[in-house]
Amino acid sequence: MPNELKSYISKVEAISKGIQQAFGQLSFEQLNWKPDAKSWSVGQCIDHLNVTNQAEIPAMEAAIRGEHTTKFFEKLPWLPGFFGRFVLKSVDPENVKKNKAPGVFEPTQSDVGEDVIDRYAKTSAQIIEIMKGSEGMEIDKMIITSPVAKAVTYSLKDTFRMVVFHDRRHFNQAKRVMDSARYPQ
After folding, report:
1. Cα separation of 156 and 138, whole Å?
2. pLDDT digits (tens, 9 = 90+) for 53-94
3. What is the Cβ-side half-sphere exposure of residue 66, based on CA atoms within 13 angstroms?
4. What is the DSSP string of 65-92?
């Protein structure tokens, strides 16, 4: 297995383990506490990851199985690289600027159930299996379409990187919620 693919897998495993350790024992109240009305709770941060990752999984699986049919925008040679760089920059964990999540990726607006962490672990395990299943494939040349916009395309390699960046970004966000002085103990 190429080192790059191993790196993606180990990072997803580490984030999943970190989320389970940091938030797996939180009470319902702690999962759903928000610093203010416009901020997300720890549970909403993790729910957002569940929603986003589940939306990406079908295209990743289809690409790995060789069942993906190339769409018009995926054929434009410069477009996937452009959008890949754009999305990666916006989800980079080092970029702490708030971004509005597309409606399809919004977490639940009601209270999040305590199973949100277990659901995240299962989704992460699914993504790890997809990553393992891509071994030996040219993931940088496999192009998929965003579940948000049909004109937004990127490589499977960039999709894997997006999962790592995005999950780390919201793991960090959830930790900042817990670090709030008013967070319930």
Report:
1. 9
2. 999 999 999 999 887 667 656 666 656 666 677 676 777 787
3. 1
4. HT-PPPPGGGGSTTHHHHHHHHHHHHH-
Q: Which of 111, 118, 108, 114 is nearest to 16 (CA)?
A: 118
pLDDT tens digits, 4-24: 999 999 999 999 999 999 999
Whole-angstrom Cα Rg for the chain: 17
Count, in order, helices (H) and strands (E) of the chain: 6, 2
| DSSP letter, residue 128 | H
Q: What are phi and psi of 45, to 5 degrees?
A: -60, -45
Q: Do residues 115 and 43 lie in contact, with contact meaning Cβ atoms separated by under 8 Å?
A: no
* Nearest-10 Cα torsion for 74, 107, 27, 184: 110
* CA–CA dist 111, 44 (Å, integer): 8
Residue with tokens 């709770």, as numbered in its chain? 41
**Structure tokens, 165:** 């960046």
CA distance 49 to 40: 12
Q: At what angle do helices 42-65 and 3-23 cross, to 10 degrees?
A: 150
